[in-house]
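Page 42, continued from yesterday. The earlier attempt failed because a stray header line got pasted into the input along with the sequence. Redoing it now with the clean sequence only.
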Amino acid sequence: MLSVLIETRNDEEGLARTLASLVGGAVEGVVREVIVCDAGSTDQTHRVAEHAGCQYMTGGVAAGIRQAKGDWLLLLEPGARLVEGWIDEVVAHTARQTMAARFSRTRASRKPFLARVFSGNRALADGLLISKRQAAAAAKSAGSAEAIARGLATKRLDAEIWIAPEPVIR
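This time it went through. Structure tokens are written below.
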């Protein structure tokens, strides 16, 4: 079973969109829990998480990793949405792999070549499916979910993700 971790700050709308895309996984019994790791939100992020039945924690993602009950973790940005069909791909990957994986971007989420070359790359934009053991080891030296995902060798899943919009600095 899978624990989903979403690190957020002042993104209640994005969090709601991401949680909506996880409902099918919860119904199928694949998503065991969703942990929202809040980094100091001043909006209604905590209410969105609580109303959706998520565990809400303040502090870093490392605490969320320690709290997670699943052997596999899915780290997502608030606002990212998994496309229908993701459940079977994740179940198949976790059954046969020990390597971390990322989702494939939907065609509409892909940037043109020059935009990719000249824009900053968000390491967590494609999500990250990682074993709890590997995530716990990476969290010892990483301060955020983004830092855990950066530079990590991963496999590309056939399942697609609508990436979250570029974050607004608040």
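Notes: The chain has a mean pLDDT of 89.
Reminder to self: strip header lines before submitting.
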